[in-house]
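Re: the multi-chain job from yesterday

Posting the exact lines I submitted so nobody has to dig through the queue logs.
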Amino acid sequence: MATHEFAVSGEPTLAQEESPGSEGALRLLKRTGRIFVIVLFLIFILLPVAFICTTSLKIPLEIRISGALLPQGGVVWENWVKAFSEVPVLRYLFNSSLIAFVSAMLVLFIAVPVTYSIVRFRTGGFLLPSWILGTYVMPPIVVSIPIFTMVKMVGLTNTLPGLIIVHTMLNLPIAVWLMDSYFRAVPKELEFAAWTDGYSKVRTLVRVVVPLIKPGVMVAGIINLILSWNEFLFALILTYSAKSNTFPIGISNFVGEHGLQFGQMSAAALAGIIPIYIMVFFFARNLVEGLTRGGLRG
Amino acid sequence: MTVPAILILIVVSLIPLVYVLALSFTKSSMTKPLQEFVGFGNYRAAFHDEVLGISVRNTLVFAITTTVLETVLGFILALALQKERLLSKIFRTLALLPLFTPPVGVAMIWRLIYNPESGMINHYLMKVGLSRGFIAFLGDKKLALPSIIGADVWQWTPFCFLLLFAALQSLPREPFEAAAVDGTTPWQVFRKLTLPMVAPALIVVFLFRMIISFKVFDLVFMLTMGGPGNSTQVASFYIYRVGFKMFNTGYGAALSVLILLLISLFTTPLTIGRDLFMKRIGQE
Amino acid sequence: MASVALRNVWKYYGHVEAVIDNSWKCEDREFFSILGPSGCGKSSTLRMVAGLEEISKGDLFFDSRRVNDLHPRDRNVAMVFENWALYPTMNVYDNIAHPLRVRRIPAREIDQKVREAAEFLGLTEILKHNVKRLSGGEMQRVSIGRAIVRDPAVLLMDEPISHLDASLRSRMRDELKTQISKLGVTTLYITHDQVEAMAMADRIAVMNEGRVQQIGKPLDIYSHPRNIFVAGFIGEPSMNFINCEYSSEGGSAVLKCPSFTIAPEESCGKSISRYKGGRSLKLGVRPEDVKVGTKEGPGSFRAVVDFVEPQGDRTIVSLRLAGGETILAQSLDRFRQPAGANVQVAFDQRHLHFFNPETGVNVHYA
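And the result, structure tokens for all chains:
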């Protein structure tokens, strides 16, 4: 409806089809300007992605000499084939997937009750939220040395479980931060009703509250998955062989070991990027909502 | 039930910090930790460490530049898309892509783009006639840091856009209608109405982004490894080099402590300032 | 000052017809109210006058000037919004001064006008307060201050007091009316509360489902409603409607209703005899014209008291008639009969209304 698009520029969306002379022209000009800016950004965002896609499909010779966007010498699949055969890309993908999935599950498993306690019962009072805040100010590098030492002590370096545990701990605060606003949106009365009906706190949480915050749990899960998949520093420190390398590390090792084969590297990189993009597309709405809810609370 | 879990968590996260602190007072290496107590020796060495100074400066430059650029660009985009229903839906989905691209992907993409011989930028610059030679974006001391900043802007501007767009959308409509009836010009509306009302969100986004940008590591590792020279040496990367490449964990720990202090010193007044500002506009 | 006239104005939202062929004129300096239930199109109409909505079809005139295509800022109207729409980041002074500031009026003149308006509305004490701290009544006054500080040609008010609590509302009603008559500005006042409209307006336009039902002075609308909708909407408690059959046999007219039969007297006999629509009619009678007593009288019939609602100055009595229908009666005397009592009911025939059951139109105007 016309009224609700009365946007923040103070201009009513009057008669855009039939406005009087100069007013209409000015409006058109403004709109053109706006669209221009938007399209510019669109290109800025998509062009790099397009470039790596086309690079992966170019013949290696062309890649070395030309930086044109579209493949000039024809579209080939050899880069993809070679990437998967010469480098254990699949192994890396498998490692990353496993770690991401398991740690996301663990995080949710722990974060849901923790967030609930914080929101509902003010557990940890002032300290806990501050701790959560603190963990995001702190650069991971600061605790990298001790964590490396600790993981080494229990013999979990270069193993999948080691990284799973580390990722879980790292991402826990983020999950709590994300789900916070969702928990707060649940009306207390529902829980009171459940308690008076005889439910224990745990049961209330599981049966009553969680179903209501499913979007929040989903967002936290997905973001944790992606964060774990993308995580670099600790994967770098704690793994050093194909058996446990995650995708990011594996790919960056690529450079050193096999020389600069951009075509294959592009293909390999895309192998890890595309699954993420697919997930993002699926859950776009959820992600946007979760991010804005969490982000705007500061 | 959760209380013990939380306690464990806090303890577990405190132990590393305590360990780092302890380590910083010793001369250790990765394989032989906690060897020799040297008091403030590491810290004194840090003071004379030129590279440390450079890395701190680079980090600051990086953090401030990226934050300002991304917040402003994100805001401009958010404003431009306010009235576009369809476009904004498309955009909000596409905006997620750079944000969630694995750092390896981001690095790969920008490596390709910045490549002197076969990169996209060089190719089209030459085509248009703006440059004659091959510009080594990542290999040039003066261009390396800006190039990394460019990659970061690509990745994070959409994030600022998303948050600011949501903030703008949530503004109440009626004051703007009243402003139209009152005869306010669009520029006046922006200055007196839109900006003040969206200021809290702007500050939140700014601060949030800045804190994250202090932690930059992945991009540097994959694009320049701190070089050429020390032009892209940033705090996190330097500590990594000291601790994991030179295995000087004692010194690395000291640096970690210092950097942590520095960051807190920088962000705490900002956060307090923000809280005060929020209170002031909420209550005044 | 200016008069406001609508000529065959329509408003579409997509396929939905929100405003259908409205025509009326609000004279210069008149307090004109548009009254109707939610969704009847009154807000859309006001917004079209303000310029916040496009006019789909028809013409809008300020005096003799067609203003359909004028931007709101060029129409010299001021608007008080339902939610007051104050500028949240500014204080009271800046809110009121805003319309003057955007016109680049010198600061000293602005200060003078703002303070005048503030004093007029009793806001001088809180001029420096941020608007978020104000109470509902204060916010409303600031909203009005902002509207009047410009000396607008037309003042538009969109349900300005519906968000206040009941006691505050009746006080603000009187205050508003006083202030506005002092100002003497042409005022268009939108509301769904008929008590408000009746108390404040010089003339009222009653709207329902996009159409204007009737325009007239408050008392005229009350005493001579044009159709069932207006008759039922105005007046509280609302008019009783009873189905009946009219027949005139051999010169004497008779009204047969399920629970009673009465002979219409001289006064209403005239309008009915003109009625050509057949024999069934809807009889309308207001509760205050329903007389309840214990003794039989001319034209009275039996009924049983359902329940009694004493309201202090008057008593509402719900009566169950022989045929099962319920009607309401309003008694100014202390009504003492308990529920279940048998009583005698009669109508004050001077104030009976008859409506065509299909069209709903008052027979008198058919």
